[in-house]
């Protein structure tokens, strides 16, 4: 709990956490694109947080023009920062999340990545919803061009496309 309070304090300094902490988690009205389970404080469906496109677009949106190891040239992506999304569901920041793709691919991502890097949940490409053929509908996008040191095998493995679910794990003994 102490670490969660520190996270809220840090995000509060950015003006993000207070609005998210007080914002209710609505029920999706459209198709569910993302399910978040595990150690979260807010849920809207039997202990999980479900999100449709409109809910993800209601979070503060960020843009990033970047190259990736899987695409040609610089592409403009848009979406919320992953730390904003996890703040909305009241997830701890000390631990990890298991990201699962639609095809069953899974990658463990330390939550500290979300603090140290502006990891985005890309939901748009060049102003259009991210299509399946373009790594969508959701793509965990690290700031590769801003931080070239992230272009390594470990971070490429964590950059899950066709994202469908996140399962949050706090550090042992923490919540």
From TrEMBL:
This is Molybdopterin-dependent oxidoreductase. Keywords: Signal. Coiled coil: none annotated. Residues 1-21 form the signal peptide. It comes from the Bacteria. Residues 65-138 form the Oxidoreductase molybdopterin-binding domain. The lineage of its organism: Bacteria, Pseudomonadati, Pseudomonadota, Gammaproteobacteria, Oceanospirillales. It comes from Halomonas salifodinae.
């Amino acid at each position: 709990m102490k670490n969660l309070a520190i996270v809220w304090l840090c995000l509060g300094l950015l003006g993000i956490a207070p609005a998210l902490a007080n914002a209710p988690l609505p029920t999706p009205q459209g198709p569910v694109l993302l399910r978040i389970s595990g150690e979260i404080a807010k849920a809207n469906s039997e202990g999980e947080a479900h999100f449709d496109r409109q809910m993800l677009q209601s979070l503060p949106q960020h843009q990033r023009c970047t190259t990736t190891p899987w695409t040609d040239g610089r592409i403009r992506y848009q979406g919320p920062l992953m730390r904003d999304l996890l703040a909305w569901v009241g997830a701890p920041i000390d631990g990890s999340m298991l990201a699962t793709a639609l095809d069953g691919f899974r990658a463990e991502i330390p939550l500290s990545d979300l603090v140290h890097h502006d990891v985005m949940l890309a939901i748009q490409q060049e102003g259009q919803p991210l299509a399946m053929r373009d790594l969508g509908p959701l793509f965990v996008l690290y700031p590769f061009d801003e931080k070239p040191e992230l272009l390594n095998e470990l971070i490429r493995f964590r950059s899950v496309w066709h994202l469908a679910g996140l399962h949050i794990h706090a550090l042992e003994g923490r919540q």
